[in-house]
């Protein structure tokens, strides 16, 4: 498992998403900054609180020209149901094959899901900020995430 460093090019991915097509990191290159938010599993308490918080402040992320891409190892049908049940604003991506989680170094091989983590990628596709939770029951608040984004977009 390789460790990504700030300033490294972010690994590209193409994942099936809740809107019925795919999401690729490279599709945002040159147009938007991207906050990739790996989360362990849909329908769990911390993940639901996190996704609902993103939704509540979705406009703040968009106002900074940032696309938020939540990624989990859940299947697309599961993520669609989760998105609908909680009225989640963002399209969600399924890393069912665990390829993106491995590329970003956040797959918990023992439990076979992603550790909660955040990667801020600039418009050039370069990693500018990252945080991996030591405990999956913890999460970064939107204030901290928006502060990292504001530092990038100054």
Classify the beta-strand content into a percent band.
Answer: 15-25%
The tally of domains stands at: 1
So, CATH architecture? 3-Layer(aba) Sandwich
* Name of the CATH first level: Alpha Beta
Q: Which strand order spans the largest sheet, edge to edge or round the barrel?
A: 2-1-5-4-3-8-9
Major pleated sheet: 7 strands, mixed
Cα end-to-end separation: 33 Å
Globular, elongated, flat, extended or rod-shaped: what is the shape? globular
Name given to the CATH homologous superfamily: Glutaredoxin
Spatial extent as radius of gyration: 14 Å
Low-pLDDT stretches: none
Q: How much helicity do the residues have?
A: 25-40%
| CATH fold category name | Glutaredoxin
Report the count of strand segments: 9
| SS-based class | alpha+beta
Order of helices and strands: EEEHHEHEHEEEEH
Average pLDDT rating: 90
Discrete helix count = 5
Structure description:
The longest helix has 12 residues, at 45-56. The relative contact order is 0.24. This protein has helices spanning 45-56, 58-63, 76-86, 99-103, 142-153, and strands at residues 14-17, 22-24, 33-38, 66-72, 93-94, 107-108, 113-114, 117-121, 127-132. The mean pLDDT is 90. The protein has a single domain (14-153), classed as Glutaredoxin. It is an alpha+beta fold and 154 residues long.
List the helices and strands and how they pair.
Elements: E1 14-17, E2 22-24, E3 33-38, H1 45-56, H2 58-63, E4 66-72, H3 76-86, E5 93-94, H4 99-103, E6 107-108, E7 113-114, E8 117-121, E9 127-132, H5 142-153
